[in-house]
Amino acid sequence: GAVVSQHPSWVICKSGTSVKIECRSLDFQATTMFWYRQFPKQSLMLMATSNEGSKATYEQGVEKDKFLINHASLTLSTLTVTSAHPEDSSFYICSARVTDTDTQYFGPGTRLTVL
Amino acid sequence: AQSVTQLGSHVSVSEGALVLLRCNYSSSVPPYLFWYVQYPNQGLQLLLKYTTGATLVKGINGFEAEFKKSETSFHLTKPSAHMSDAAEYFCAVSEGGGNKLTFGTGTQLKVEL
What we know:
The complex is a heterodimer. Chain A has strands at about 5, 10-15, 20-25, 30-40, 45-50, 55-60, 65-75, 75-80, 90-100, 105, 110-115. By secondary structure, chain A is an all-beta fold. Chain B is built from no helices and twelve strands. Chain B is an all-beta fold. Chain B is globular, with a radius of gyration of 13 Å. In chain B, a hairpin with a 4-residue loop joins strand 8 (about 65-70) and strand 9 (about 75-80). Helices cover about 0% and strands about 50% of the residues of chain B.
């Protein structure tokens, strides 16, 4: 149980284009999902907290207009990187929290490369 | 504010030897503590967690960790390392259940024959 999927697992795009990453909780409902960014050999940095049916809460320094988050259902959250640039290249990982519990379950991550 | 310090970015042990990965935290409220493991190009898998109650918690794959409030520590141990344990390990803290996690910088565990 508690499986989280991400799609795509990797994506290569041209500078200036937008990329959408999906995060799905497959066997549970997640009121809250989280989006993290991980640079090579570094830890995970929380970008934003996504609550179903409401606006996401962004961490300090994260541009909400660049990283658009939508959490339209209890099993799906999406992260759209708009007008991507090479510095946005990173490993993006989502997690989902089982409603009314204290544990986050993580997706397998999406490797974004912007050329 | 909460924070996590993982001492030793790289730890190397022999197969069959004790694994000890160190984690110290700071939190303004009673913490929830987690250990996650990450294999290359994959997401994080929960090893174990401490919320309340028994301070020695057992997780998957033979790992365990002990919450020591007086030392603000939550070190991860395993009596006998296996080659398959080679991975990156992250300690994380949250101030209360369901709240955002703050991760340590990670410890890369290498297991040698």
